[in-house]
Amino acid sequence: MRKIIVPIMITLLFLTGCPNPPSPEQLKPPQATVRVDNKQITTRQGSFCWSEGGAGVCQDAIPPDEIAKKLKPTTVKPKSRLTIQFHRPPKKGSLGVNLWKDHKPQTVQVVNNVIGLPDRPGVYVYDFFAEWEQGSASYVFVVEVK
User: Fold this and answer.
1) Residue 107 contacts residue 81 (beta carbons within 8 Å)
2) 66 and 138 in contact (C-beta within 8 Å)?
3) How many helices (H) and strands (E) does the chain have?
4) Which domain of life is it from (predicted)?
5) CB 75 within 8 A of CB 144
6) Which helix (H) or strand (E) holds 2?
7) Where are the domains of the chain?
8) Pairing of strands 114-116, 44-52
9) Is 66 helix (H, G, I), strand (E, B) or coil?
């Protein structure tokens, strides 16, 4: 009887003690939701580094103003307030937002995950980024103020 139980126990310990690490496709930062005036704004993933379960992946993306060319702008009213939320909260104080002008980022003030949008008509490209224990990520969106 011992000859059967010992090998079974060793096999069970091996199987439960050695979980498979996540695949690169599973290693992704949390999804972000951006809303303004009860409208959800489409975002695209930018660069990120993420590690979980003993595995990690980093992915570089093209600059935000280039990513924006693939996004349809969401029409918003002047001076609207935009809210950024994540499916998993980032580290406190790690959320940052940039407005892109002439291929250069300009820092935008963020208060409680909310930013104010411009009052002048036009198309505006933004990127935002945050950090978690598992890594960091950036996202891009485009609005058109009308």
Assistant:
1) no
2) no
3) 2, 11
4) Bacteria
5) yes
6) helix 2-17
7) 21-145
8) unpaired
9) helix
Which pairing describes strands 135-145 and 74-76: parallel, antiparallel, or unpaired? parallel
Q: How far apart are CA 59 and CA 54, in angstroms?
A: 17
Best CA proximity match to 95, nearest among 77, 105, 108: 108
Round to whole Å and give the CA distance between 102 and 27: 33
How far, in Å, CA of 135 to CA of 99, rounded? 23
Q: Residue 3: which residues within 8 A CB-CB, separation 6 or more?
A: none
Task: State the amino acid at position 105 in one-letter form.
Answer: P
pLDDT tens across the length of the chain (146 residues): 556 655 555 554 455 555 565 555 668 999 999 999 999 999 999 999 999 988 999 999 999 999 999 999 999 999 999 999 999 999 999 999 999 999 999 999 999 999 999 999 999 999 999 999 999 999 999 999 99
Rounded to 5 degrees, φ, ψ at 23 are -80, 160
pTM of whole model > 0.90?
no
Q: Report residue 122 as tokens.
A: 């036009």
